[in-house]
Amino acid sequence: MKNKAFLIGVNTYDLRYAERDANLMKTCLEKHRYEIIKPYKKERHSILEQFEYMLEKCGQTDNVIFYFSGHGFLERGELCLVLDETSSKFSNGIMISEIIKPFKHFIMANKLVVLDCCHSSAATDYLNSFNSLDDTTRVLTSSDRMESSKEIGEFEASFLTYQIHKALTSGVSKICINKKITIDKLYEFLVDETNEYNYENKKSLSKPIPIPNLFGNVRTFEIVTCDESVEDLEFYKVTEDALEKLVEAKKSFFPNEPTHKEISLKRDLHARQEAVKQIYQIKNNNTDILKNIIEEACEYVQLKDIMPDKKSRESFYRHIFIFLTTWLTESLKNDVSMPLDNFIEYSEHLNIRPMLFVDVLDIIGKEKLDDLRLPESSKKVVSIYLDSLVNKIKVVLQYE
Amino acid sequence: MSDIKIYLDLSEEIQQLLADNGITIEDILRHENIDVSDVKKGVMPQNCGENNRDKGLVTFILASSFLLAKIGCAISTALNSSSGKTVNESKEHLGKDVVIFKFTLEVTINKQDSTR
Fold first, then answer.
1. Contact between chains at A151 and B52 (C-beta distance less than 8 A)
2. What residues of chain B lie within 8 A of the CB of A73, using their CB?
């Protein structure tokens, strides 16, 4: 079984992010092992030729996605995907029937059309045409038949695409069930995010962002299978191959990490000095400070801010080191993919905020791994975990 | 006389009407013997600078200003006969060379229903 995606993004008529949309899709689908096909020419004839060629090469067990971001308009009631602005008659536009027809003709496990353009739901006019026996095609659209889709400056992307990307990267933990992300679960996520965005921005939006639509039969489509290698890994018999898989798996280790932009915004809102001041106001006694650090402050306060005394810090490091090694050993013994939630829970149990580990992890480093008394191969795993933790937390903190 | 850009801002109901009947603005203008060689697609001028942009296109016509009334009348008449409803039109001038022609269908209220 293979996963393939045919991605088109065209910046026409003042659009800024359609091409970037296609790249965002590429990034998140590649992460889930999709083979990406992006047409080398934005010409109707060439695109249709490449699309059909890709379909011909697909097997009956393959999953295929067709994706378009750009302008869409209705030409005599049929959705036309705009490829350039040179022709007023759109001889270089693709009529949606030209995509759906071959799509429905070829037999594949699952077929998904994703349209991030205006009037996109008009595509469903053809869902029941051409091959009525086909029940494997689904259509995900950004807008209703008469609605306009939006590019959002703040996201530097179209709304639907941004949310799909979010779902398949940082949102995986929310929508992955039994190691699978289905189109229905993805759709639920998209609708929730759209409603939330509309609610949060109701004052600034002239019109609400259209709610996405999902059409097609009731068969569910597993868009991606989440990484299964991690849980299946047998800890004490770590092979090189398994290690490689683990390196891949660690990339999704902190699924909810905020973006750099989000961090910058937070930093603007809560200046570092302000946070430190707040902490001192909450508690003057150093021993209890860690129990009371407010959530926002945790994200950018370093240990030395709240424990200026070096000896106290060293004592704290020792405490954390014991905790961390216990956690790592236990988690590796039981289940290599011990999720971050458990880690947070564990640390909260000890009244320690996980964000403070950045200092500790920097100090522990790989040279302390000997103290773990683990087999050589397992040390590699621990080392990867440490790297992952340090790097990911560094990203979260924009730590220098 | 230099040409002006006449942007057509059609309500959702009118767009639906055109789509359902499989007709285009070009068809309507052609029917009224108006030259359609300069009917183009574009983005509403107000939409261009915005941070959040619509991904929809509108029709605009490059025509001399004296054709403005004729175009408006032709579109209103055609929409009126297709829908059976009164067509409201309004014009907004954006500078010297750009006009936005807005068309909506009048909402008819059933008196009996409204008093219930």
1. yes
2. 41, 56-57
Interface test with A, best of B55, B60, B62 (most A CBs within 10 A): B55
HSE-CB at A84 with a 13 A cutoff on CA atoms is: 10
The string of pLDDT tens digits covering residues A186-239 is 898 899 989 988 988 888 887 889 999 988 875 677 777 765 433 332 333 344
CATH code of domain B3-105? 3.30.1360
pTM of the shown model: 0.64
Tell whether A82 lies on the interface with B, counting CB pairs under 8 A: yes
Q: Tell me if chain A has a CB within 8 Å of the CB of B92.
A: no
Chain A hits for B20, Cβ within 8 Å: 77
